[in-house]
Automatic annotation (TrEMBL):
Residue intervals of the AMP-binding enzyme C-terminal domain: 471-545
Lineage: Bacteria, Bacillati, Actinomycetota, Actinomycetes, Micromonosporales
Chain spans, region Disordered: 1-21
Keywords for this protein: Membrane, Transmembrane, Transmembrane helix
Record's protein name: Long-chain acyl-CoA synthetase
UniProt keyword annotation of Membrane present: yes
Location of the AMP-dependent synthetase/ligase domain: 33-420
GO terms, molecular function: acid-thiol ligase activity
Alphabetized InterPro entries for the sequence: AMP-bd_C (IPR025110), AMP-bd_C_sf (IPR045851), AMP-binding_CS (IPR020845), AMP-dep_synth/lig_dom (IPR000873), ANL_N_sf (IPR042099), ATP-dep_AMP-bd_enzyme (IPR050237)
Natural source organism: Micromonospora sediminicola
SUPFAM superfamilies, A to Z: Acetyl-CoA synthetase-like
Membrane among keywords: yes
Segments traversing the membrane: 260-282
Listed Gene3D superfamilies: 3.30.300.30, N-terminal domain of ligase-like
Length: 559
C-alpha cells in the first residue's frame, strides 16, 4: 500500500507537497549552523529596526553558550526562559540547546505563584528572565542564578538614546520595557565577557530532549511536555513542506505570536530559522507597531491567531497601509471565522488557512492546503508523515466511519516523548503503536478534512492562550468568601472568554468585582474571569463532581 492509499488526504495537498518528509538526523542547533553557513550576511532578526545577521546570531549564540557553561549549565540541565519576544530570547534559546541542556519556556505575564509551581516542577537552577520579572523568579523552585535581560539594550542606538530623555512619556515607555533587577546577573555583561564556546564542544543529538513546554494536556493540570530535537525539527520540516511556495533565504516572518508558546516557538524560532527567513520581533502585539514595521520591512509570511488578522486587516484599511506583501498566513489556536478569512484575503490578496495542533505535537498536525483545495470551516488534513484515526472515545479500538464524530488520535514524528516526571499521565495519552490521544472530538470526511466538534478536555482558549479551568478555580477558592467555583469558556466574536460561577459563604460575602480584583494576585491577566456570576449552587454529577458543561450551558442561557 503506498502513502496515497494509506493517506487518502494527500490527494488534496497543494502541488509539490510530499506525503512523507524525511526524518531529520541533526539537532535544532544544526538548523542555525546551516542557516549561518547558507545565509550569513542576511538579516536574521529585526527588533524595532536593530538588525542581527545570521553570522552575528551564530556568534552571539556561541558566546551565550559559553557564558551559560561558566554558570554550570551542562547536558540535560533545565534552563528557564521567562522572556517576551526579543533578540536575547532567540539567542538564549539556541545557546541553551548548544550545550545539550533543556529549554523550559515560561510566560513572563505569569504571577509569582504560577512561576513557582513550574519552576519547582522542572528544577532549573539557572533562569534567563526579563529584568521586569526577575523579582518573581529569584529564590523560586530550585533557581539559584537569575540572569536579567534588559530589552532596551537590543534597541537601535537612536531609540536607546531617546529613552534617556527626561520626559514623562519617555520615562513611562522606558518603565514598560525595563526595570532594576537587584541581585541578578546582567545578560549583556555575561555574554560580552565570554568568548565563543569552542566548536569542538559536544552538542546535542536528535533524540535528546530539547524543550519542556507546559500544557494542561487532556486533564487540565499543567505539566511539562517533553519535546526532543527530532520532534521539533520534524515539525519545522513538515511546516516547510506544507508551503512549497516559500523561498529559502527570501522570506520575512513577523513574530507577533509569543515565542514562549508552542505555536510561536515552532513557527518563529525553528521554522523561520530553518528557511533562512528574517524574523521581525514584537514584544507584544500592537496593531499600530506592526503596521509601522511593514513600511520598514514588509512581511511575507504571518502566523497568528484570528483576532490578530481581523485587527490588522481593519487597521490597515483605516490607515491605508499596504499588506499585499503577505502571501501566506496560517491561523491556529482557535476557530477561524470565515468572515475573518474574507476580510484578510481582500486586504492582502494572499491566502489565510487554518491549522490544528497541540503542545504535545510540537505543535502542528493538521492544516488546510495552501491551495484551492482548502476548505474553510475545517482544520484541514493531516500533515506529511502524519497518520490520524477517529475512534470511539469509550473504545479506542473502534474506528468511526467518515462523518461520524469521535476522538482524534494522531501519530507522527512530531508526537512528544511524554510528560516530565509523570509516567501515569503519559500512559493515559500515549498509546501502543505511537498513537496520541488528543482529547478532541472531531469528524473527518472521506477526503480526510477534519472538523473540530467539541473538546473532551475543558480547556479555555482566550486570545490564543490556553487557560485551564482548574487553575482559575483554585485561585477563586483561595479568596475569602468563595466557597465553590467553576470556570468555563463562553464564546465571543474573537474566540472565548473566561467566566466563573461562584457560590459565596453568606457570612463573608463579596462582590463579583472584588473577586476579579483578588484573582489578579494569583493569575495572569488573561486568566482572570471577565465575568463572575454568583449562584446559589453548582450542578454536580452523582458522585459530586461539578459539571462544568452544565455550568457553561446555564451561563449561556442566562446571557
Amino acid at each position: 500500500m503506498d502513502a496515497t492509499d494509506r493517506r487518502p488526504w494527500t490527494r488534496s495537498y497543494a502541488p509539490g507537497v510530499p506525503a512523507e518528509v524525511p526524518e531529520p538526523d541533526g539537532s535544532l542547533v544544526d538548523l542555525l549552523t546551516d542557516a549561518a553557513r547558507r545565509f550569513g550576511p542576511r538579516v536574521a532578526l529585526d527588533f524595532y529596526g536593530a538588525t542581527t545577521t545570521f553570522t552575528e546570531l551564530a556568534d552571539q549564540v556561541a558566546r551565550a553558550a559559553e557564558a551559560l557553561r561558566r554558570l554550570g549549565v551542562g547536558p540535560g540541565d533545565r534552563v528557564a526562559l521567562v522572556l517576551p519576544n526579543c533578540p536575547q530570547h532567540v539567542v538564549a534559546f539556541y545557546a541553551v540547546l548548544r550545550l545539550g541542556a533543556v529549554v523550559v519556556e515560561h510566560n513572563p505575564l505569569y504571577t509569582a505563584d504560577e512561576l513557582d509551581r513550574q519552576l519547582t516542577d522542572h528544577g532549573a537552577r539557572v533562569a534567563v528572565v526579563w529584568d521586569k520579572v526577575a523579582p518573581l523568579v529569584a529564590g523560586r523552585g530550585s533557581v539559584r542564578t537569575v540572569v536579567a535581560v534588559d530589552l532596551t539594550s537590543a534597541l537601535p542606538r537612536l531609540k536607546r538614546w531617546a529613552l534617556r530623555l527626561p520626559l514623562p512619556k519617555v520615562r513611562a515607555a522606558r518603565a514598560a520595557m525595563t526595570a532594576p533587577a537587584p541581585g541578578a546577573a546582567a545578560w549583556s555583561e555575561l555574554v560580552a565577557a565570554a568568548g565563543p564556546l569552542p566548536s569542538a564542544h559536544p552538542g546535542p543529538e536528535a533524540g535528546d530532549v530539547a524543550l519542556l513546554q507546559y500544557t494542561g494536556g487532556t486533564t487540565g493540570v499543567p505539566k511539562g511536555a517533553v519535546l526532543t530535537h527530532r520532534n521539533l525539527r520534524a515539525n519545522a520540516a513538515q511546516g516547510r513542506a506544507w508551503v512549497p511556495g516559500l523561498r529559502d533565504g527570501a522570506e520575512t516572518v513577523y513574530a507577533v505570536l509569543p515565542l514562549f508558546h508552542a505555536y510561536g516557538l515552532t513557527l518563529c524560532l525553528t521554522f523561520a530559522v530553518g528557511i533562512g527567513a528574517t524574523l521581525v520581533l514584537f514584544p507584544r502585539f500592537d496593531a499600530d507597531q506592526v503596521l509601522d514595521a511593514t513600511r520598514r520591512r514588509p512581511p511575507t509570511f504571518l502566523p497568528a491567531v484570528p483576532p490578530v488578522y481581523a485587527r490588522l486587516a481593519t487597521a490597515a484599511r483605516e490607515r491605508g497601509v499596504d499588506l499585499t506583501s503577505i502571501r501566506y498566513a496560517i491561523s491556529g489556536a482557535m476557530a477561524l471565522p470565515p468572515a475573518t478569512v474574507d476580510l484578510w484575503e481582500q486586504v492582502t490578496g494572499g491566502l489565510l488557512v487554518e491549522g490544528y495542533g497541540m503542545t504535545e505535537t510540537s505543535p502542528i498536525t493538521l492544516g488546510n492546503p495552501v491551495a484551492p483545495t482548502r476548505r474553510p470551516g475545517t482544520v484541514g488534513v493531516p500533515f506529511p508523515s502524519t497518520d490520524v484515526r477517529i475512534v470511539d472515545p469509550e473504545d479506542l479500538d473502534r474506528d468511526r466511519a467518515p462523518g461520524e464524530a469521535g476522538e482524534l488520535l494522531v501519530r507522527g514524528p512530531q508526537v512528544f516523548a511524554g510528560y516530565w516526571n509523570r509516567p501515569e499521565e503519559t500512559a493515559k495519552v500515549l498509546l501502543p503503536g505511537g498513537w496520541l490521544r488528543t482529547g478532541d472530538i472531531v469528524t473527518m470526511d472521506a477526503d480526510g478534512f477534519v472538523t473540530v466538534v467539541d473538546r473532551i478536555k475543558e480547556l479555555i482558549i482566550t486570545g490564543g492562550f490556553n487557560v485551564y479551568p482548574s487553575e482559575v478555580e483554585e485561585a477563586l477558592r483561595r479568596i475569602p468568601g468563595v466557597r465553590e467555583a467553576a470556570a468555563v469558556g463562553l464564546p465571543t466574536d474573537d474566540g472565548e472568554e473566561v467566566v466563573a460561577a461562584v457560590v459565596l459563604d453568606a457570612a463573608v460575602g463579596g462582590t463579583p468585582e472584588a473577586i476579579r480584583t483578588a484573582c489578579r494576585t494569583h493569575l495572569a491577566g488573561y486568566k482572570v474571569p471577565r465575568r463572575v456570576v454568583v449562584v446559589e449552587d453548582l450542578p454536580r454529577s452523582q458522585i459530586g463532581k461539578i459539571l462544568r458543561r452544565a455550568v457553561r450551558d446555564q451561563l449561556r442561557s442566562d446571557g
